[in-house]
Amino acid sequence: MGALERLSQISGQISGSKSAREKLLEKNPDDIVVTACLRTAFTKGGKGGFKDTQAADLMAGALKGLLERSKIDPSLVEDVCVGEVLAPGGGATEMRAAALVAGLPETAAVRTLNRQCSSGLQACVDVANQIRTGMIEIGIGAGVESMSLQYGPQAVTEFSELLESHPEAANCKVPMGVLSEDMARDLKISRADQDAFAAASYQKALKAQQAGLFDEEIHPLTVKFTDPKSGETKTVTVNKDDGIRPGITAESLGKIRPAFAENGSIHAGNASQISDGAAAVLLMRRSTAERLGQTVLGKFVAASVVGVKPLLMGIGPWKAIPKALSLAGGLTNDDVDIFEINEAFASQCLWCANELKIPKEKINPKGGAIAFGHPLGCTGARQVSTLLYELRRRGQKIGVTSMCVGTGMGMAAVWVAE
Amino acid sequence: MAAMLEFRTPGWNPYAVKYSPYYDSRIAVASAANYGIVGNGRLFCLGLGPQGVQIEKTFDTNDAQYDLAWSEINENQLLVACGDGSIKLYDMNINEFPVMNFHEHKRETFSVSWSPVTKDTFASSSWDGTIKIWSPARKESIKTLPVGNCTYSTSYCPSNPHIISAVSTDSHLRIFDLRTPVSAQYHLTTKIPVHVPPPVPPLQGPTPPAAPGEILTHDWNKYNHTVIATGGVDKVIRTFDIRNPSAGPESIMLGHDYAVRRLAWSPHASDILISASYDMTVRLWTDGSSMPAQQASPVKAGIQLGIMNRHTEFVTGVDWCLFGVGGWVATVGWDERLLLWDANRLLQGQA
């Protein structure tokens, strides 16, 4: 069997115990690596540049961009998995069509999946696992959401009597805002703390945008846009997140009325924005990447998924992150350079960070969903770009992406930038 | 050390040595060409006579040999663990070919161990992350126990035929009890993180590293059948009482300068063990269990009783002779040598 592997095993035994971090930074031919990743800009639901663009069109644009950037032969891509939450029928038909539009041949299979807010991450993880088991050699994990066109009450059907009769099951349909409000109150996360966290997200995102730190990850798309005032339809190129606003401070957020309860703490300014956007990640084995001459941006290491009480869905990352760190070979918080934790609500993100004792400066250094939006199915795939480009820019290595998931789950994944 | 017998294996780098459980004059050495990295393997069956150590039989394999075990039911038979994942049963009365070939492991088989109690099964562990239980009479394994990462060594409890232990890359010592239902845990009953420091550190000496490290070897104490010693890449030898898996190590032995490749408890004394290392030395230890208890810490610091440094390359195998006055030891190393010597002389400072 593999002489090189035997050699490196023995040399590993001689060079002594490596720390979990050192082990993680090793480059092995069977690593699952990212050779290209990008996202579209995120724009405000119902108002922004993508308000008239179908999710499938966003995805087609992102996939096309990914193929262009990576310069990979599209016929080598064997499977595409798209996370999408709101589309009827999971958007399966539309995404297959979008892949064909993007230039993938009919030999590239396509599927969609829905694990709520972690769909984009789950898509990347599924593709990585497919590659790891040898089912495919090259795949794309992606995510997309048009909340402008597909967000609404039709997203959940009526619960049956059976589901309603089971208290914990019935909790699954409690709206996110309402349960987060209760959770913030019960866990004593003050309005002031939430507003400060949210303001920091805005300020970090603004600074990053001004410094051009999103330019690498954003793939500009040219789309049709109908001006709501004049009714005139024009063609626009969207290359900037439009949710990022200047001048936001904890004080200015302090003036906004709570959205879900009269004496509540959660409002539009300290919760994630409703947005449109798409993201995609090209994955393959390191040996494949080297054979094809692809640039390796980073590697996927491990992912975790956990369940929590449906009413406490916001604590998902608190449970998922330690599990992912342990699956990655026993990492500690100190080993991780950046945590991208989705800001569904300032309350839950802040609570998780505090409970896990993650230093503030390691969390979402370029801001998060509060500042630039959370297109549900897209976010998990978006975080990969945000994380890897920032780690590379800083010369840092290990990052974690994580999010809470509606109905009470959490996901987290460990990535290494190269 | 005057009384030391030597046997050379030119062109072959030994990986394991075992005394026969039947004859005091019979020894086997499993070896590999090119340090086990690429090439064939050769099993040496050796006899001790008036002329010194002589070859009785050799068996060649297509891939490296990493371990061997003598049959407990047939004095002429022995198993070798091969680099291609196979396990071969050889009979010294039959030339050249194995009498049985067991090939299910998907990667290198790193250890074999014959059940010392019922004697009707043997266990193997592999880089493929599994332990397999076999009957010498059938080609298919009886059971597969998943470990999930490269499993360097597996062993039977010396008193209970249902209990099997294993150590692996992930820094854990696992105990399987085959009497438990297979559901959920696949017979896994105990999983001890070897690297985790004891709640109260030992009083004397330096503290051992707390980072996870590959565990390369382990052995059951022959007198206290709940005590297991482990050794590995972090250079530390530790003993554990499997009745209290969360208590951390019972004793800690520091001294080797590189990874501990193999260790073996004495068949003649409950507190004595011997270890072979990549630092080219073999060291004799007491685990401290026969010394009076210390007040402040339940963890004992074992004491190095002697050091043998005649090997000139990695020492990969060590075994005690079961017979005679006790204390005879066989060691092999990548220096293409088998050395037979009396560990008692180490105690007398005559090494």
Number of distinct helices of chain A: 16
Structural class of chain A: alpha+beta
Which range does the strand content of chain B fall in? over 45%
Distance between the termini of chain B: 5 Å
How large is the share of residues in beta strands of chain A? 15-25%
Task: Give your account of this protein's structure.
The complex is a heterodimer of chains A (418) and B (351). Chain A has 418 residues and is of the alpha+beta class. Chain A contains 16 helices and 12 strands. Chain A has helices at 3-15, 20-25, 55-70, 92-102, 119-133, 147-150, 161-165, 167-170, 176-186, 191-210, 250-254, 286-292, 316-327, 346-355, 369-372, 379-394; strands at residues 32-39, 43-44, 79-83, 109-113, 138-146, 221-226, 233-238, 275-285, 298-307, 338-341, 398-405, 409-417. In chain A, the strands form 2 sheets. In chain A, strands 1, 2, 3, 4, 5, 8, 9, 10, 11 and 12 form a 10-stranded mixed beta sheet that branches. In chain A, strands 6-7 form a two-stranded antiparallel sheet. The longest helix of chain A has 20 residues, at 191-210. Chain A is globular and about 70 Å long. With 351 residues, chain B is an all-beta fold. Chain B has one domain: 7 Propeller (Methylamine Dehydrogenase, Chain H), CATH 2.130.10.10. Chain B has one helix at 344-347; strands at residues 4-8, 13-19, 26-32, 41-49, 52-61, 65-70, 77-82, 86-91, 100-103, 109-114, 122-126, 130-134, 143-146, 151-156, 163-168, 172-177, 188-193, 215-220, 227-232, 237-241, 251-253, 260-265, 272-277, 282-286, 300-301, 303-308, 315-320, 328-333, 337-342. In chain B, strands 18-19-20-21-25 form a 5-stranded mixed beta sheet, with no helix packed on it. The longest helix of chain B is centred in the C-terminal third of the chain and has 4 residues, at 344-347. Chain B is globular, with a radius of gyration of 19 Å. Chain B starts with a strand and ends with a helix. The model of chain B has no long low-confidence stretch (mean pLDDT 93).
